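Q: What would this chain look like folded?
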Amino acid sequence: MAYWLFKSEPSTWGWQNQVAKGDVGEEWDGVRNYQARNNMRLMQLGDLGFFYHSQKEKAVVGIVEVCALAHPDSTTDDQRWECVDIKAVKALANPVTLEMCKAEPRLTDMVLVNNTRLSVQPVREAEWDVICALGGL
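A: My prediction, written as structure tokens:
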């Protein structure tokens, strides 16, 4: 199993929107960055990811699961763009802010800490464990 982080602006698509989709999940569409798209192409069913609210909140707020492999993004006719589907698994008891991640020595190499603009990014297992602990899981 691999771990990932999915960033979204809560005013556009927030954690509550994701939860409302239930087990059906939702396409993680609209990604127009090759590195983020390539990350989604690497995902396998059952991989887990952090759901991250960007902009003002800047915090990991929940855990999602990949429930459909990479497929054409339904929001465009451009065949270059693909996405996966994800479903909500669990909310974090305590949101883990970007500030907390930057202050945590065990997360200094985390992509989120070093490249806050990448919308879909890998997370190492050790980083996953740290953030889960900080989040009260």
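The chain has one domain: 3-134.
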